[in-house]
Design goal:
- Strands 1-8-7-6-5-4-3-2 form an 8-stranded parallel β-sheet.
- It starts with 6 loop residues before the first strand and ends with a helix.
- With 222 residues, it is an alpha/beta fold.
- The chain has one domain: Alpha-Beta Barrel (TIM Barrel).
- 34% of the residues lie in helices and 18% in strands.
- The relative contact order is 0.17.
- Strand 2, helix 2 and strand 3 form a beta-alpha-beta unit.
- It binds D-xylitol-5-phosphate (DX5) and zinc ion.
- The site of zinc ion has 6 residues, from strand 2.
- Its cofactor is a divalent metal cation; Fe(2+); Zn(2+); Co(2+).
- One of its GO terms (cellular component) is cytoplasm.
- Belongs to the ribulose-phosphate 3-epimerase family.
Length: 222
């Protein structure tokens, strides 16, 4: 099996929202994507940031933006993020009746398309849809808040996606509780894109923390 380089995506949810341009610059040379958690106080209880912040961030950094929409009605809102220049737009399977139609619209609007699977959602109904997506985000917590504890049993979903992926280039992304202690098991299960908020922005040197995570993921996958 061809070796897939791990992607590291710091979540700005754990960064200082008043200094986002600086926080992006602090990790720019060490990471692949910036993970942007959009929460609407409906799909999840938490409320974070939305389109205007993504538009500003897009102008402030060259790091590709990986937008994770934890919102109701992504059919209405997701395309705006693609048009704002997001590299990848991931919406939740639980929030739409027609994920394939939305993925096609996202790709037509110029972004990659991602599908997120929350803690309590089975992966099996979505395995046939992999050709329609560029990223499949398996939550390793219940979506909604940073700083939660990693749930290793959810890696069974990562294994299922990996088995179903075949030759497809879809990335398997994990999000929630990823740190130096948990990234290896996620990589061994087959994840190849890693979101980390607390473990990167909570560290004294976020770039060094990101590099260390990458090394651990690489070593575990090989
Ligand atoms: C939570 C978000 C995550 C969050 C991860 O719903 O989707 O991206 O920022 O934070 P940590 O890495 O602290 O678990
Ligand atoms: Zn996220």
């Amino acid at each position: 099996m061809e070796h897939i380089e791990p992607l590291i995506a710091p979540s700005i949810l754990a960064a200082d929202f008043a200094r986002l341009a600086d926080e992006a610059a602090a990790v720019a040379d060490a990471v692949d994507w910036l993970h942007v958690d959009v929460m609407d106080n409906h799909f999840v209880p938490n409320l974070t940031i939305g389109l205007p912040v993504v538009e500003s961030l897009r102008r402030a950094t060259d790091v590709p933006l990986d937008c994770h929409l934890m919102i109701d009605d992504p059919d209405r809102w997701a395309i705006g993020y693609a048009e704002a220049g997001a590299y990848n737009v991931t919406f939740h399977a639980e929030a739409t009746d027609d994920p394939v139609a939305l993925a096609r619209r996202l790709r037509a609007a110029g972004s990659k398309a991602g599908l997120a699977i929350d803690r309590d959602t089975l992966i099996e109904p979505y395995l046939d849809l992999l050709p329609e997506f560029d990223t499949l985000l398996v939550m390793t917590i219940k979506a909604g808040f940073g700083g939660q504890q990693f749930l290793p049993e959810l890696l069974d979903k990562v294994r299922a996606v990996k088995a179903a992926r075949g030759e497809l280039s879809v990335r398997i992304e994990v999000d929630g509780g990823i740190n130096a202690d948990t990234i290896e098991q996620a990589a061994q299960a087959g994840a190849d894109a890693f979101v980390a908020g607390t473990a990167i922005y909570g560290a004294e040197d976020p770039a060094a923390a990101a590099r260390a995570l990458r090394e651990r993921a690489r070593a575990a996958a090989s």
